[in-house]
Design a protein that fits this description.
Layout lengths: L1 H11 L6 H18 L7 H16 L9 H12 L6 H27 L9 H11 L4 H18 L1 H4 L3 H11 L18 H20 L2 H9 L10 H15 L5 H18 L4 H13 L8 H7 L6 H29 L4
Helix pairs in contact: 1-3, 1-5, 2-3, 2-15, 3-5, 3-16, 4-13, 4-14, 5-16, 7-9, 10-13, 11-13, 12-14, 12-16, 13-14, 14-16
């Protein structure tokens, strides 16, 4: 069951771009599952439910281009340099290793590290709850079709070249169209979009200001010039970029890191004849696997419900973060090499 929950958390990354929003949506589900399965707060079973959903949707979500805001920030910075990465191109590189690998890493952390049980609770209670819901309504079916349309357009962007952001805007707009969508404007009147817009705008502004003031050039010289990345072989060059990015992540949130660090590495790659796209993918790996809860706000959010302890979260993030950087990253780079991408 834990593995199924982990895959469910991952599946939501294809539909909702923000890891924080996904965790906010999944947390009440985790609470209800813990109640039905009689798993007490702080127990290994309750922690397993919360982390199977929350940690998997966070870590594995980075394998989807639209599955994490740091990915979008990274893409925006790259497009300012006149380059882009398609949704399908990102998925082909990241999903086989990091999407599936992160799910199994989360599951392994739950089963091997603190031995979360396989939740032997009364599964018939879940069946009864599902029967009470009844068949999907017409509105729910329309939402499923619209979300399927978004995924189809994202997956085929290499054919139509419609930016993932515009696909999201299109589907969001269709949700408000009479007889097509399911929302009205009253439903979102109380939402404070200004906070979200201000935060994302501020993150992008950080990178712009750092470039405009010359900080990125200075930092590039201080941090990278002595590293000799351009002289390393194909594996060492990309793996060292990932290691450096993962170390910088210790000092800032992944959103801020993607805004500050990405321009530095892109300028270094351009100046030293390194492939910018491959450098960007190597950076994305370093951003995707934080070692500590404080590096990822969605993981911290899980603690607020009291079903998982700080010690349990720390052990899980150390395990998954270490597995991502030390095991999955080398596997991915060999995989890319076999595909002829690096």
């Amino acid at each position: 069951m834990l593995l199924g929950l982990a895959f469910a958390g991952y599946a939501l990354a294809f539909l909702i771009p923000s890891a924080m929003v996904r965790v906010v949506l999944l947390a009440p589900l985790a609470v209800e599952l813990a109640r039905v399965l009689k798993q007490e707060k702080g127990s290994a079973g309750a922690a397993g439910i919360f982390l199977a959903l929350g940690a998997s949707t966070y870590y594995s979500g980075y394998s989807v281009l639209t599955g994490g805001l740091p990915n979008i920030i990274l893409l925006g910075i790259l497009e300012k340099e006149g380059m882009t990465i398609f949704w399908g191109q990102w998925g082909a590189r990241m999903i086989p290793v990091f999407g599936l690998g992160a799910v199994f890493a989360v599951y392994a952390s739950l089963r091997l590290w603190f031995r979360a049980p396989q939740l032997p609770g009364d599964l018939r209670a879940l069946t009864r709850e599902l029967e009470l819901l009844g068949p999907p309504s017409a509105a729910e079916r329309r939402v499923i079709w619209l979300l399927g349309l978004a995924i189809a357009l994202w997956a085929t962007d290499f054919l139509h070249h419609i930016h993932p952001t515009f696909v999201a805007l299109l589907v969001s707009s269709l949700l408000f169209v009479p007889y097509v969508g399911v929302l009205d404007f009253e439903a979102v009147r109380g939402l404070n979009f200004s906070i979200v817009l201000f935060y994302i705008g501020a993150v992008f502004a950080i990178g712009t200001v750092l470039q405009g003031t010359g900080f990125t050039a200075w930092a590039s010289g201080q941090v990278l010039e002595g590293s000799g990345l351009e002289r390393l072989g194909w594996f060492g060059r990309h793996y060292v970029v990932t290691l450096i990015a993962s170390l910088f992540a210790l000092f800032m949130d992944t959103l801020a890191e993607s805004s500050v660090i990405t321009p530095i590495f892109i300028q270094y790659a351009k100046a030293h004849g390194m492939d910018v796209i491959n450098t960007t993918f190597s950076l994305a790996i370093g951003y995707a696997f934080p070692y500590f809860p404080y590096q990822a706000a969605p993981i911290i959010f899980l603690l607020g419900y009291g079903y998982v302890t700080p010690q349990q979260v720390l052990r899980a993030t150390l395990f998954v973060g270490g597995a991502g950087i030390l095991v999955l990253a080398p596997i991915a780079m060999v995989y890319w090499r076999l595909l002829g991408l690096i």
